[in-house]
């Protein structure tokens, strides 16, 4: 038992030490009760703090991922709405094509329908080029893939779906069947002499002196000129030529030739670009039986379409068309090409081969169709001719096939639209929105200015409708997936937050007990510290 001392008050020191401990307990308990957190600093629970912070990172990431998914749905809705309007435009184009395909319309009626088709094509491109979300272009191919060719004038890669990893490909093209040119023959032209004798017209004969032009009143009523229009299924151009009464038959032939192809202007149809002025394409020849009183071999105007499988349609003043009386002598036939695609990049795909009827190949490159000019491996001979009935026409000949690594190169670079839909690395989904311009949809050259062209145009419109439908379906599927993702993320966020709460948040009922105990002990310690300090006064009693 310790003695009664004056210098060192051990009971007071012991009481003070315990009082300080209780004060510390009260301080920590008050901090927890005021913050609502069990862990306010790492010292409160070092391991628990680490776990809680990891859980908090997940909760914050999940919350942002939900917002990301909602933003992605908004983007999808903008794109899908624009595609819906493109659907409406295409349906209108199909309506006009079906209308133009009917035999009750005149060339002037079809010209008016074609004018609306031009506007609708422009509207398709406007929608594709101006549809944006947060300044991101959605339908012009920017969020699909970059498809480029080393010769875009002849070979073009058209994005149609997800391109996967992309790559670099060599495209070898050669014609296996050259197809057939279209030949159109006008009625035979005669002029009547002052004595009333019919004679064959010749290149120097003026149109106003040809009997057919007189019979059908082409230049009646003092009219000195009429318009002749030409169009083709190769592109959507319509070229207009002014035909004067004083023009000779030879001048008319040259005007038609230049309307088909004139390398010095852009107002022509632009066919057979490797020909100088298309002179062999329009000729004046003596074909068939002679009219009464005429010489053997009556004069006729013969027009040869300069691209195999292509069709020329004449329009304009109905009296002029009747006087010319063009009739199809040989139906155009599309050439057949052999295509080979070689992966010259990483070599992940084996060489693919395909026979193509027309000018568009599918399924050789993932997500990309290859469109090429039908004259790519075909040319018109300057000397060789084909005999078609009574007609001698320019002959199609094959160029050297474009083969191997020296062929056209197409590069496909994926640029997917990526959405971060989770809190961690790798939690994303990708989608691609294709190029929805008229060119990629395959209807940039849509032409319904002739009945046959209108009938043929229904098919590419249906293909374009399928492409837009497929893109809308893809966006709808991704949107449904994002909605499911949001539901899943919300549940995960709730459970993660509950787990963090179990570690970080304070149990108030338990802590109030702790605080009350510490508070009572603090009050008690304070009281007994006063008594311990008073013990030294007992020494004074001994000194009395």
In short:
The chain is an alpha+beta fold.
Poorly predicted regions: 275-279, 288-296
If helices are DSSP runs of H or I spanning 4 or more residues, what is the number of helices? 10
Strand tally is 23
Query: How would you classify the helix and strand content by structural class?
Result: alpha+beta
Query: What is the topology, as strand order, of the major beta sheet?
Result: 3-21-5-15-16
Helix content: 40-55%
Give a topology summary.
Blueprint: H1 10-35, H2 46-100, H3 107-130, E1 132-133, E2 136-137, E3 145-149, E4 155-159, E5 167-177, E6 183-185, E7 190-192, E8 198-200, H4 211-215, E9 225-232, E10 238-244, H5 249-260, E11 282-287, E12 298-304, E13 312-316, H6 318-324, E14 327-330, E15 336-343, E16 352-357, E17 360-365, E18 368-372, E19 378-388, E20 391-398, E21 408-414, E22 417-420, E23 428-431, H7 438-441, H8 451-504, H9 508-534, H10 538-542
Antiparallel strand pairs: 1-2, 3-21, 4-18, 5-15, 5-21, 6-12, 6-14, 7-8, 9-10, 9-13, 11-12, 15-16, 17-18, 19-20, 22-23
Helix pairs in contact: 1-9, 2-3, 2-8
